[in-house]
Amino acid sequence: MKITELNKNNTDDLLNNLLKRSPINYASYEKDVNEIINNVRENGDKALFEYSLKFDKADINTDNFVVTKEEIDKAYENVDPTLLKAIRNSLTNIRTFHEKQRQNSWIDSEDGIILGQKVTALEKVGVYVPGGKAVYPSSVLMNVIPARVAGVETIYMATPPDKDGKVCDNTLVAANEAGVDVIYKMGGAQAVAALAFGTDSVKKVDKITGPGNIYVALAKKAVFGYVSIDSIAGPSEILVLADETANPRYVAADLLSQAEHDELASAILITTSNKLAEDVSEEIDKFLETLSRRDIISKSLENYGYILVADNMDNAISAVNEIASEHLELVVSNPFETMTKIKNAGAIFLGEYSSEPLGDYFAGPNHVLPTNGTAKFFSALSVDDFIKKSSIISYSKESLSKAKDDIIDFANCEGLTAHANSIKVRFEDN
């Protein structure tokens, strides 16, 4: 990887380059996506099944559209027992973490005034899970478990089948372990449209979460407002902030762990050590000789890989906060102290034994994270994403009497005389 001195100009150039990867910049795809959405909205199952044949080469119809118990049972027979154990251990960690995020309704009462907040889980959620070349049972757990912990009544999952109409065994087992209620064999923008608007065979949901390709991302963007969505996720990214104490082999391995996702993935090292920068670059070259996805990694690093050397740690941290990476590793002498200075990051990994894949698969915090700088204002997927909050307001006549003049003054100020009248009529006899 090329080593560059960190300064404001190259930080700006880096940010502009990374932002090109955002799905919101792929307007050329939107026409096709909108056509698919409108077709499914108007023609329902007919359009949905036609797209399955066209894109997935699978002959899907009402008879084989929903995954059966028999298919799930068969999947368990085909899944490696060691993987099943890993799924269950990971599930326990994810559930334990997300249970700490639960919120309770609350009520306060004083002097005839009752105020509060009612927390209610969403009723129906749709989870999209990629299929085909990209199969991520870990994403099943990360999307389904917080919804289940939140108390979502029914969880539907959409995932594309192969040409034989079969869903990946690992995905089915993960879905069953996490508690998915119904699994539909459908993918792409057409699946998002079906979940957003409903068809004869697909229930309309309240929210759609989960990763997908550019068509899925743009479809989620298009249906937002009809339903809620988690985010419009961009390609994966990692930023490692390291000083001279870091192990260059570890840093190189962690950078490559994200670069292998796809050619648009980003891997960035910011360091205060020229020697570490050189050593990491050498280690990356060594790893590339042995890794199975080296062609993808090489393209990713060529376009979106950076090693930046900062004059001091303050400047390095400033650049980290400006980039606002999805994954941030702090491989420095005192990572906990450095963490207090981090303002923008999706997930923060502290120390040399807290590598990014630990968060992807096992630790418990969610791996559905903000990308493309959106960590400046978005958070990781959580239980909060599957609840809604209703305000509770109750005033006695005496309490309203004390507030009525202020309310009437506000209403009159805004020219809303019916608002003012709504208060006045309650005190006409006084």
Explain the overall architecture:
The chain is α/β, with parallel strands linked by helices and 430 residues long. The protein folds into three domains: 3-19 and 234-364, 3-Layer(aba) Sandwich (Rossmann fold), CATH 3.40.50.1980; 25-229, Nitrogenase molybdenum iron protein domain (Rossmann fold); 396-427, no CATH class. The chain has 17 helices and 14 strands. Strands 1-11-10-9-12-13 form a six-stranded parallel beta sheet, with helices on both faces. The protein has a five-stranded parallel beta sheet with strand order 6-5-4-7-8, sandwiched between helices. Strands 2-3-14 form a three-stranded antiparallel beta sheet. Strand 7 (207-209), helix 9 (214-223) and strand 8 (228-229) form a beta-alpha-beta unit. Helix 2 (27-43) packs across helix 9 (214-223), helix 3 (45-56) packs antiparallel against helix 8 and helix 16 packs antiparallel against helix 17 (417-424). The longest helix has 19 residues, at 81-99.
